[in-house]
Amino acid sequence: HPNPKLTVYPEARHNSWTKTYDNPELYEWFLKHQRK
């Protein structure tokens, strides 16, 4: 299993999704790891 990366955005509060999905590294990680 791939090692996930935890990123904490303390200033984002409940809206951490916006910062998360604005990060291109997330999509690179998705593309590198696929379910088999």
Automatic annotation (TrEMBL):
InterPro entries (UniProt xref): AB_hydrolase_fold
Record protein name field: Alpha/beta hydrolase
UniProt organism field: marine metagenome
Upper classification of the organism: unclassified sequences, metagenomes, ecological metagenomes
